[in-house]
Amino acid sequence: MNVLKICSKCGIEKDIENFCKNKKTKDGFGVWCRDCYCAYFRTWQKENQAQHRAHSRKYYQTHKAEYKAYRQVHRERIITYQKAYRKFNGEYLNAVRRLKRKREKAKAAWAKIECRLKTVNHPAYGEFSHLQRRKMLPKFLKEMKRLCRRGRSTKTDRCLNDMANPQCERGYTKIANEIMEALIRMEMSGQELRTTLLVIRKTYGFRKKEDYISLSQIAQFLKTSKVRCSQIINKLQARGILTVKENINGLVKKYMFNKDFEQWRTVNENINRIEKTKEPLRKNLTTKEKEIKENNTKENILSKASKTFDIALKLSQLLLEEILKNNNSSRLSKKSEKEHRQICLTWSRDVDKLLRVDRQEPSIVEEVIRWSANHGFWGTNILSGRKLREKWDTLVVQKNRVSIPLQRASKNSDDRFSFLGRKQTGDNVFGQQPGRDAAGRILQNANDFLPPPPPKKN
């Protein structure tokens, strides 16, 4: 029996299972229902986030051992739950990760700027708090850029603008301007250009003409797979931009940049394509094929289709009439004329296929419909145009079969064994057989198997 209780917050009478357990009350259940308590807790949690976090951290520190024991006992259950949660909340988790990365990057950027402001002793560093400085950062940067454009650059502005400060003293790649111009003019994909520049950096950057470069190193720079890197290198080798020399073991290859840009080959997109002729090859048609082609115009096909469809509609109406004639209590008899017309239209599609596709004559179809409707077996089975077409071959064979009437034997005479050329006498087909007992043994003398007579008294 279900026990009911009224919630003191919403005032709705609910089942006792909808209330949380509480030892302090008389009945052992809380005053509020679960829905009201959850709604209240959510609002409180939003309003008091700092308090809730502090309480949860404190509770975790005090019950750390219990948490650890629970995780060890229910490890598989926790893993399955985490997988299901990741599966159904993948988009939300990705968004949280992106937000964390943005915050980390912003934090690192602000730390750099703050460090430089501190070294310069800028007034913005000491006057405001940390949060105020973070809010003022975009406006501050805009002002610094504006001053730099006007030429009023200060020590602070130089520190902010020169975040990355590359210098030739730290190293450079010596390359001719003609090669750079040739690379700019060359039609290459982004990955091909990056691979070429990487080879130039690893060879000319170290004052070498050729050098051993592993695929893993190239894949690390391009941020792609090794398979894709090998495909790009093969293309550049085929175009004559790079030359590749294999090692004796074949594990590491030696790469060299071909600076003779006149030997570079451009890729023609239509090299591997087969040019199709505009006019197809003509075939000499026979007179019969020409007649068929002339007759198979759109108008002729439509006229033929309309004629066969009209005949098919009439035949489907005949089938419906025969079904209703043989069965007055049919479900089709209780439908209206409009529904009968719709049924005939659906049946006529199959009958039309029987005439056009299967090439059957309408007169034969009419005869088969009438014969099947009056047949004892097929009258109960052929109840639609689809069934008529499906069983067409069987119907035609049975209709054309010569029916041989069966001669029933009289009660007195039995002619089942007339093919043996003798009359039935009650004996076995192979003659008169000796008697046998229940075990199948032949009874030669029935008196031998009778019990012996009792002895006579003297």
Describe this structure in words.
The chain is mainly alpha-helical and 458 residues long. It has 4 domains: 4-61, no CATH class; 63-164, no CATH class; 185-263, Arc Repressor Mutant, subunit A (Orthogonal Bundle), CATH 1.10.10.10; 302-398, no CATH class. Helix content is 54%, strand content 6%. The protein is built from 18 helices and 7 strands. The chain has helices at 34-47, 49-62, 64-73, 75-88, 90-120, 123-127, 130-150, 155-161, 177-185, 190-203, 215-222, 226-239, 287-295, 298-326, 337-356, 362-374, 385-390, 392-400, and strands at residues 4-6, 13-15, 19-21, 29-33, 210-213, 242-246, 253-257. The strands form 3 sheets. A 3-stranded antiparallel β-sheet has the order 5-7-6. The chain has a two-stranded antiparallel ribbon with strand order 1-2. A two-stranded antiparallel ribbon has the order 3-4. A hairpin with a 6-residue loop joins β6 and β7 (253-257). α5 (90-120) packs antiparallel against α8, α7 (130-150) crosses α8 and α10 packs across α12 (226-239). The chain is extended. Residues 150-162, 269-282 and 402-430 have low confidence and may be disordered.
Are there runs of 5+ residues with pLDDT below 50, and where?
150-162, 269-282, 402-430
Order of strands, main sheet, comes to 5-7-6
The total of beta strands comes to 7
Give the DSSP E fraction (strand runs of 2 or more residues): 5-15%
Distance between termini? 94 Å
Helix content: 40-55%
Strand count, sense and barrel status of the largest sheet are:
3 strands, antiparallel
The class by helix and strand makeup works out as mainly alpha
Order of helices and strands: EEEEHHHHHHHHHHEHHEEHHHHHH
